[in-house]
Request: fold
Amino acid sequence: MSNDTSISKDLIGQLIDGKIDDDNATRLQRLPRKDHDRFVAYIEVLQSRASWPDQILLRLCDKLYVVRNAQNQRVVKCECGHEFGDYRQNWKLGCKVRVRRTAAAMREVYDPAPACPEPGWQEIREFFCPDCATQHAVEVVAPGYPAVFEMLPDLDKFYRDYLGIPLPDEAPDWYTDRTEQVTQRWAANAAG
Ligand SMILES: [Zn+2]
Reply:
């Protein structure tokens, strides 16, 4: 495999699209050392495909990113451009949510039937972007369980210690879960 950056980016693009052939996938997996440049190249490929100018800091799932926006805030952003807000708050709380509670509703998405969650003990929650309706996540949890905050990345540590390219806006309070600020705001609004 060539070390040519353009070829690497081409392969990364194929990897992102799920179109990489088996030989190249195996060769990528068998490389003796993971190079730090690969993450940078990966981000550059994602950035080249984005329809907005905000700097991508991390990809959370297929169409969801942590970016630095025009206001220098680190926010979660959908591929369509919708911003979910501060990345320290669980972005799921800004989604449209479909909850499947009955056996009939669960069987629509589970097969075979024995694999189905048990109504009453579990529910299926599907989280959609309110603008483009992309389904960003699905979780199966007990009714009443808080929305699972799947990942709060320590971006400062990752960029500084693992990539060697510290972010210009490092601060000690970036790596803090602030989801409760959303629910507290909801509670305050509900109390009138
Ligand atoms: Zn969207």
Q: What stands out?
A: The longest helix spans residues 5-17. Residues 53 and 69 are 8 Å apart (CA to CA).
